[in-house]
Amino acid sequence: MVQNHLSRIAAPKTWHVNRKLTKWVARPMPGAHPLDKSLTLSFILRDILSHCKTKKEVNKILNDGNLFVDKKIRKENKFAVGLMDVVELPKLNETYRILFNNKGELSLVSINKTEANLKLLKIVRKNAVKNSKIQITFHDGKNLLMDKFEGRVGDTALFDLTKNSVTKWITLDKGVIVYLSGGKHIGNICKIKDVIRVKNLEKPKVVVEIEGTEYTTLMEYAFVVGEKHPELSLGDKK
Description:
The protein is mainly beta. The chain is built from two helices and 19 strands. It has helices at 41-48, 55-63, and strands spanning 5-7, 24-26, 38-40, 68-69, 72-73, 80-82, 86-89, 94-100, 106-110, 118-129, 133-138, 143-146, 156-160, 165-170, 177-180, 189-196, 205-210, 213-218, 222-226. It has a five-stranded antiparallel sheet with strand order 5-4-7-8-9, with no helix packed on it. The protein has a five-stranded antiparallel sheet with strand order 12-11-10-13-14, with no helix packed on it. A five-stranded antiparallel sheet has the order 18-17-16-15-19, with no helix packed on it. Strand 4 and strand 5 (72-73) form a beta hairpin. The protein starts with a strand and ends in a 12-residue tail after the last strand.
């Protein structure tokens, strides 16, 4: 049985948490994002943004419908948000995107209202389903049914949250710009120099260029964000 709480000492390294403040911290509800790549709304409001001091104050904000995630009102304080999710507090005129900093910790990067309508979605699964349809599954749990799709796992969609539709597809290939979501260089924005696809049990890899030096990393860490430049602002690397 999954517990509703988590020891601060055992909290994932991706959480910027004071491990000696109290014994427990709320565990995210099961959802699209795994535990080590998600934050609760309670943690965001209280520990990161410091808009509240108690759980009661957190619930007041949420129950009044004052917080949106990807344009939808969320009222559960343990709701999990993760990479590329858009968090909005309209009454405070605050809009953020969830990203990694260079320490590998999930953080909030302030964005403008125009970019709040857009989100980058990475394809993590592609399946053939009934009625000759192709089902595309994205990293945040969204699914899309299509009649025909030539893209591959690892490609990215620029998604309009207001229209609930894809505005652009970006292929994972040489020369594109990627955001590293894992590994030693997590949080870096870099260019792919080569793609190493394998047919054995090895995981596919990419060669990326960071500040003039080439590194090899797993393809699963490469989140395509643009062809020549990032489609959305991804903040300064801090």
